[in-house]
Structure formats: C-alpha cells, structure tokens
C-alpha cells in the first residue's frame, strides 16, 4: 500500500479516487473506517481513500474521526498520506481543515506541509494565495451563499489563519514556475522560519506536477484532488481502477435509473433545470420536511409507476439565494433533515429496483451512501472531471453510483452520465 487518503466528504473521496485511478494507481474507496483492512489489502489496491463525513461535523468529532482513519491507514501499511478537502476550501471559521491538518501532522510528528486547493481541471486556481473559480474570486461566487459552509473570503492564507494557531505562509507563483527544486528550497526556508503551513499558488497542471515533485519527502500533503497528478513519478500507461478486469471487481446489475439532488450549488441548479425539461421531476419541499410531513412515502409513491420508463429526478435543490432568504424561517437542522429525507428516498428507490443512481452534493451523498449500507466503492469510468461512476461494495447487489460534487459537471450532466456506463 503506497498512499492512504482521508477525504472530508464522499463526493470529494470519489473525486480523489478517480484522479488517482487516472494516474494508473490502483485505488479503492472505503466508506468510513472499516473494521478490518483484509479486504482492502487483498484487493491489491495501491491507494485507499477513506471517505468521512467530517467537513461540517463539530471540530472535535472531525479531528477524532480523521485520527482514527490515520491509525487504520498506518496499520494496513500506508507510507504516505493525503488529506483531501474541497477545491473551494469549504469550511467554517472554526474548521475543519485547519484543526484536522494540525492533528494529522502532530500524529505523524511533522512540522511542515502544504495547503493546495487548486484544481485547474475544474477551474479552481490559486493566485497570490487567492482562490479563484474561473476568473471569479471564491467569495464572489455562489459559495458565499452555501447553506453549510458559506465562503466569505478568497484568501486561503487568511482562511487558514482563522482555523489554526500555527503559522501560515505562501509560496507564490513566481517560485512555483521555477520548478520542484526551487519550490523545495522555499519549503525549507519557510519551515526554518517557523511556518507550518504553506499555501501554494497553482495555475495549471504543470504547476501541480512541480508542486507534487517538491512534496516527495512530505509524509502528508493536504490538498484538493488536484495534487494527485503530481504524486506519481511517471503517470502509468492507462487508468487503472479495480473495475478493470480485476477478480474482485463487482459487476453492477443495471436496473432502473434515478437522480437525487440535495446540492444547492450553482452547477447543480443548472443541471436540475436541464433535467427537469426531460425527466419526470419530484421537488422535495424543505418546508414540508420541516413540518414533519411524510415526504418519503409521497416521493416513492410518485416514483414507482415511472421507473420502468426512464430516469426520474428528485431534488431539494433550490437557487442559493432562495436558501439564504429562507434560512431565518427554517430551523437550523433543516439541511440535515433534508439529507435524511433524501437518504430514505434513496433506500426506497433501490428497494423498488433502482440500480443506477446519481447523487448530487457531498453531504447528501454521505447520507445516501450511509443509508444504503455501502462499505466501499470501486472506481469506474469518469463521467466528467472529478466524477466517476462507482460500483458499490457491501450492498446486497452492486449498484452503479455517481456521487457528484455540487459544483462539478456540465449542464447536461444528469442527461449524459448514463452513456458513460459500460
Ligand atoms: N432547499 C434547501 N434548503 C435548505 N437546505 C437545503 C435545501 N436543499 C438542500 N439543502 C441542504 O444543503 C446541503 C447541501 O450540501 P451538499 O454537500 O449536499 O451539496 P454541495 O455543498 O453543493 O456539494 P459539495 O459538498 O459536493 O460541493 C445539504 O445539507 C442539503 O440537505
Ligand atoms: O474538491 C472538490 O471540489 C470536490 O471534490 C469536493 O470536495 C466537493 O464536495
């Protein structure tokens, strides 16, 4: 086992796993910390991604779960570690990126690592320490109105300083452009000056390759999935997932198709709009959920006669500005109650024969995957950057599941994704 990864949400986990597979690294994703490592070791995986649901958990919980994951990864023989967070640095002023990174470093006896959220394949770059989505600074995107992790600053150095007592510095693009040796020298200088976290500028994959090379001696990196391309010496000839002719690969059985959207991100809103024009659609009303109405039974009753004819769409998704406007009128636990509702709907849909399911949103995916009893995911073909099809492990029959990050994918994602299934 080469690489042990800890992802702070489930879509982020498949994003990273897919990036590793694309580098030719045989990768498996597990859901939470498994009881035993036997199955993962037997699978021949060279990287394992533990997907946690810690992005918005209370800080102490997030730290404890991440440390438990680290211990498990060490026990099964991992030698290097990767803490994966969101390419839009989704977090609150209290955390959880800073506290989790600090705790992992303490456990590994480290005094320096990188903070590298750049993901150019999806338009996320870091310039002078500021995170951009396309050309828009993070705090001017719809992330400002995110229901759980509203991002009000684009400056990653400042964001990190809110979350850690440790010193945070910057490796600017002028240094990055000079290649791995120069970057490594800068790491050394920052470290000698007592800097524990270096935010690293990156504008494209070339930069990430150089940063990855410069990180070769760091037992732990912290990053979005972008840095995965820099972690192997030479990318291998072709993608390599456990689904590629591997004896332990599950085979998805087909079955009816459904899309469940719980993300209120801009991309998901556009994708819901596009799919509404084509698929029968059931809007999950947050007010009905909060009033305690039996939305799950209503949704399943609606879906049952439709499933034979093609995909159905069920969504709580609403434009972020509506969510913000309604926030003061709804209880604080509304997001998690919606997650529970969508998770119960997912279980009902699978019981009614759905075998191919797309879920939009990281927290939503965490809830759905939990309710389906999924213990692991084998990584299948990529639908769009950062979103692969996966085959479930641990369910009574393997399902084809796509966990889509809120802001990933083109407008037609929900319409086109099925074509990428073998
Ligand atoms: N109409 C709504 N009003 C309030 N909250 C909602 C509504 N619809 C969904 N939610 C909640 O918003 C949260 C969206 O988070 P989620 O992580 O699923 O999506 P995302 O942040 O867009 O995705 P990602 O984390 O992959 O970027 C969930 O907790 C969900 O239950
Ligand atoms: O990094 C990203 O943007 C995604 O993998 C993600 O974490 C969304 O939840």
Automatic annotation (TrEMBL):
Residues 3-230 form the Four-carbon acid sugar kinase N-terminal domain. Keywords: ATP-binding, Carbohydrate metabolism, Kinase, Nucleotide-binding, Transferase. Its EC number is 2.7.1.217. Residues 258-414 form the Four-carbon acid sugar kinase nucleotide binding domain. It is an enzyme of class 2 (transferase). GO terms for molecular function: ATP binding; kinase activity. InterPro entries: 4-carb_acid_sugar_kinase_N (IPR010737), 4-carb_acid_sugar_kinase_N_sf (IPR037051), NBD_C (IPR031475), NBD_C_sf (IPR042213), OtnK (IPR050007). It catalyses: 3-dehydro-D-erythronate + ATP = 3-dehydro-4-O-phospho-D-erythronate + ADP + H(+); 3-dehydro-L-erythronate + ATP = 3-dehydro-4-O-phospho-L-erythronate + ADP + H(+). Belongs to the four-carbon acid sugar kinase family. NCBIfam families: OxoTetrKin. Catalyzes the ATP-dependent phosphorylation of 3-oxo-tetronate to 3-oxo-tetronate 4-phosphate. This is 3-oxo-tetronate kinase. It comes from Streptomyces antimycoticus.
């Amino acid at each position: 086992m080469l690489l042990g990864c800890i992802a702070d949400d489930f879509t982020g986990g498949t994003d990273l796993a897919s990036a590793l597979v694309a580098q030719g690294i045989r990768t498996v994703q597990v859901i939470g910390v498994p009881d035993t490592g036997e199955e993962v070791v037997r699978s021949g995986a060279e990287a394992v991604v533990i997907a946690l649901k810690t992005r918005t958990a209370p800080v102490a919980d997030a730290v404890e779960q991440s440390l438990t994951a680290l211990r498990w990864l060490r026990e099964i023989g991992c030698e290097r570690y990767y803490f994966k967070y969101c390419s839009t640095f989704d977090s609150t002023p209290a955390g959880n990126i800073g506290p989790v990174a600090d705790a992992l470093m303490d456990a590994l006896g480290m005094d320096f690592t990188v903070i590298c959220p750049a993901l150019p394949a999806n338009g996320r770059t870091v310039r002078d320490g500021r995170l951009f989505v396309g050309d828009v600074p993070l705090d001017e995107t719809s992330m400002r109105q995110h229901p759980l992790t509203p991002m009000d600053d684009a400056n990653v150095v400042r964001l990190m300083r809110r979350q850690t007592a440790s010193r945070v510095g910057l490796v600017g693009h002028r240094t990055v452009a000079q290649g791995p040796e120069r970057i490594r020298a800068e790491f050394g200088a920052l470290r000698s000056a007592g800097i524990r976290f270096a935010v690293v500028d990156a504008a494209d994959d070339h930069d990430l390759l150089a940063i990855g090379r410069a990180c070769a001696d760091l037992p732990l990196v912290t990053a979005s999935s972008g840095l995965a391309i820099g972690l192997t010496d030479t990318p291998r000839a072709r993608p390599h997932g456990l689904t590629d002719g591997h004896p332990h690969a599950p085979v998805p059985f087909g079955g009816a198709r459904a899309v469940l959207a719980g993300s209120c991100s801009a991309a998901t809103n556009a994708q819901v709009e596009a799919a509404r024009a084509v698929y029968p659609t059931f809007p999950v009303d947050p007010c009905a959920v909060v009033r305690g109405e039996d939305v799950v039974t209503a949704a399943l009753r609606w879906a049952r006669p439709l499933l034979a004819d093609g995909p159905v769409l069920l969504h709580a998704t609403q434009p972020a500005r509506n969510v913000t406007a309604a926030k003061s009128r709804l209880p604080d636990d509304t997001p998690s109650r919606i997650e529970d509702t969508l998770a119960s709907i997912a279980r009902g849909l699978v019981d009614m024969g759905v075998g191919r399911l797309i879920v939009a949103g990281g927290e939503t995916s965490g809830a759905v995957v939990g309710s389906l009893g999924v213990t692991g995911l084998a990584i299948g073909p990529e639908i769009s950057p950062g979103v692969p099809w996966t085959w479930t492990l641990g369910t009574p029959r393997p399902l084809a599941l796509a966990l889509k990050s809120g802001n990933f994918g083109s407008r037609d994602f929900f319409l086109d994704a099925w074509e990428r299934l073998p």
